[in-house]
Write a structure and sequence with these properties.
- The chain is mostly beta strands.
- It has a single domain, classed as Immunoglobulin-like, CATH 2.60.40.
- The protein is 10% helix and 35% strand.
- It is built from one helix and eleven strands, in the order αβββββββββββ.
- The strands form two sheets. A six-stranded mixed β-sheet has the order 1-11-5-10-9-7, with no helix packed on it. Strands 2, 3, 4, 6 and 8 form a five-stranded mixed β-sheet that branches.
- It is globular and about 40 Å long.
- Bound molecules: copper (II) ion (CU).
- The site of copper (II) ion (CU) has 7 residues, from loops.
């Protein structure tokens, strides 16, 4: 398991450097789209940033990144917790004004939330991983976030768009 997590950390570091361009969709190493199979597979890590102050998802936080997937595609999110607290992952309806400190655990699509997602003790633990799969069946604006209370308000959320057509990628607004 340690070797697996180490490989993920290296992959994320390399892909972050390679996708430094701003405000355009990119396909970093942790994001794979297969248009013939109509699937998108991504690796998302919960971790601390370089200053070890804030929580983030693949280095993104507070909506400064946007994942776009095509409507109707099967989505697989391989979630790794590289932090020392329990974290979770889920796709929820986009909030109207600001993130909630106590989000509900109702995903936007069946299956689009990790287990015990709102529990600060029962969510995905340090060093653990979980895979969620769902069909992005409705176009629209959603959020990919940690559902542990107060973590989204602490930064652990990014935008998750389901677009009509074949648009797919990751936009970096950091
Ligand atoms: Cu979290």
């Amino acid at each position: 398991m340690r070797q697996t997590l180490g490989a993920v950390a290296i992959l994320l570091t390399v892909s972050a450097a390679a996708s430094a361009q701003r405000s355009t969709n990119a396909a970093p190493g942790w994001f794979r789209v297969d248009h013939s199979a109509r699937t998108v597979t991504m690796t998302i890590a919960a971790e601390q940033d370089a200053s070890h102050i804030s929580w983030n998802l693949n280095g993104f936080m507070n909506g400064n990144g946007t994942i776009t997937v095509p409507e109707g595609y099967g989505i697989t999110i391989n979630f790794f917790n590289l932090d020392n607290l329990a974290h979770s992952i889920g796709v929820l309806e986009h909030w109207v004004i600001e993130p909630s400190a106590t989000p509900d655990s109702i995903p936007a699509f069946p299956g689009a939330v990790s287990s015990n997602a709102t529990s600060s003790t029962g969510a995905t633990r340090e060093g653990a991983s979980e895979t969620i799969t769902f069909v992005a069946s409705r176009k629209g604006r959603y959020v990919l976030m940690c559902l542990v209370p107060s973590f989204a308000t602490g930064g652990m959320w990014i935008n998750f768009n389901v677009a009509p057509g074949r648009e797919a990628g990751v936009r970096d607004d950091r």
